[in-house]
Every structure is written in C-alpha cells, then in structure tokens.
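# nightly structure sweep
# worker-07 picked up a monomer target from the shared queue
# config: single-sequence mode, recycle default, output format = structure tokens
# input follows
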Amino acid sequence: MPIGTAVHERTFKLCESLNYREWSGYYAVSVYETHHEHEYNAIRNAAALIDVTPLFKYLVAGRDATKLVNRVITRDINKVSVGQVIYCCWCDEQGKVIDDGTVSRLAENTYRWTAADPSLRWFRQNALGLDVSIEDISETVAALALQGPTSGRLLKKVAEADIAHLKYFCVTQGKIAGVPVDISRTGYTGDLGYEIWMPWHDAVKVWDAIMDGGREYDVHAAGMLALDVARIEAGLILIEVEYFSSKKALIESQKYSPYEIGLGRLVHLEKEHFVGRSALLAEKKAGGAKRRLVGLEIDWTEVEKRHQEVGLAPQAPSIASRVAVPVYSGHSQVGKATSTTWSPILKKMIALASVSADRAEPGTRLQMELTVEAVRHKVPVTVVALPFFHPPRKTATPVL
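# output follows
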C-alpha cells in the first residue's frame, strides 16, 4: 500500500477529487479538483506548488565523489561548478539509458542526485574501489516544485535567499519559515520554476509558508495531470513512456540510447571513460541513431472531420495520453507517438514521438493513428522541433 509524503496532511485536505496515483510507493495527487484546468493555468499563468517528494534522492560525498559521478553519467561533471545543477542520463555497458535525472553540485565533492527509479545498487556497484559514500536520502529529504510566471516573485517574498539573481539550473541555500532549504532553479514544466529541498519533518512548515504567502500570486496546489500536459509542451521525456529503462526492458527495441530520445547533447564522448562510452562512440561512428525523438503537431481540421463524419463534435483529449499510437509514412509504420495532449496555451493537439531518423526532420509530413467510435483512421501530422513551448521567462535573469 502507498503511504503519504511529508506534506500528505496538507495535500489530502486539498484533494477534493480523491484522485490519487502511486508514485514510488507514495500517494501522489493526480488532480485536486474534478478537472486539472485550474492547476494547469496556475503553472502557465500564476504559480503552482507540486509535491515531488517521491523522487529518489541520493547524497554522494567523499574524496572520489566526482570520479564516481563522472564514471556513471554521460556528461562531464568536471565542467560543472559548485552551485550548478545539470540534467543528465546514465547508461549500461551497451550504451542504453538506465535512467535520467539531475545532479546538483553542492560542494567540491558533494552531490545530490535525483532519479526516477531506484539507483542505489547501480551507483554502489560502480563505486567499488572508490573513497565515496552514497546515502539514500529519499525518506529524509522532501521536495516541492514551485512553477509558473509568478513563482519567482512569490519565492522572493517568502524565502531568505537571493532568488532574483538565481540563474537557470543553479542552486542556492536559504531559509523558508526558518527551515534551512536548498532552492534550485529547475523543474519539469518548461516554465519559470524552482525546486525546494528541505528536511522531511519540516516540509509542512515550508508548504504553509508558500501557500499563505502566495495568495497574492494566485498560488495553487497542482497534481500530476496538469504536470503531464506541461511537460509534453516542454518536450520533456518520461521514463517508461518515451523510453524504457534498459534494466526493465523486455526486448531490445524497448532499449534506447541517449541519441534516440533527444539526449545526444548530454553525451560528452571526449571526456574520460564512462559506462557505455564505447558503445555510444560506435553508434555515432556508424551514422548515429536509427530513430529520433520529435514533436508532432496534429492537423486539427482532420480530427474535426473524422468526428463530424460520424455525427460527433470534435473531442480534444481531456487528459494527456501515455498510450503509444502508430505513426505512418504512407502505408509504412515509421514510429509511434508516445505522449499526446491538447495544449491549452498553444491551442493545438501535440505529441512526442519516436520516429525513424529519415523521417525526423522538422516539416516532414506523416500520419498518426486516431480512433473514433472504435474505427481507426489516419490523420496528418507535421514534425516540429522541440520544445513546443519555450517562454523567455524560463531562463531570464534577474527574475522580476
């Protein structure tokens, strides 16, 4: 049975829908109201507070901490300064992605590492012979994501920290309601946003300070349904949806290299040896990925037409879909759409998709399967560059 997170006593009272899901053994709110419209609007137009405590979190420290991180991830950690955060992935020996997450360099040889799946065993296997400690802090550190265009002003009000000058993908220390916190300018929404890391037992104090101090900034608690729409708009991948961990994949085609899921920019082949480097180097020399992650814009006129043909009004999906849908070029299947949603801010139906590399250039016209009244159709789609939504405020400094 799932258990509550550090702020469950607050989220439970707000969750009118009683619509939960299980996330890494914890109750996670899917949607607080009966529909996620207000929560999505908070992410894009105000401020949304999201409980992301179920993330797996590890503290890596010791003389060889940097060596371990560099051995495991595909990026070069030596290029990362204290106070910076990076998004990265780590692979098995065959160059297939195990997981993706963030690494925050808190001190010269101290890192906080987040992951979607349990990773302690893999980290410790790769730490054999190194002077390093790896502590699983998942149950002692809580995390809240504060996302949206007013999130910076809200944090400036409630936090004792230099929020105005905190740069994108950097982390600083401070206090909220007297509680020591780390605040990173990161998130999973593609908007201006922050993630706040705090001691588990003090998380409610931080939640209350943000919710009470954020009323003038129209802060709302937001759940996973709203977050799913936002992350698709931002072109951000989700494990077990856009790709499968190589540790869980049942067949070879379920395993993906970083180049196949849009993470090629995170692979630094020029650095010292890391797990999977030889396989990734061979893949690049052989011509690169055979399939690529792309964005798709669905032709809404055709969606309307298919519904009208059976006497129905066109129906935009009310929630984001994580069901894989075939993508075609003519009569040949060339890939699959992995996440599909109606984008309220773009007024378009969009999807993340894995397609063959020769069909991945922006502007390419393809077709995607659409089912109406149990009848399968093909509707035109256009390949577009990711992300779909990229507001200047996401990376602007100072935060006004």
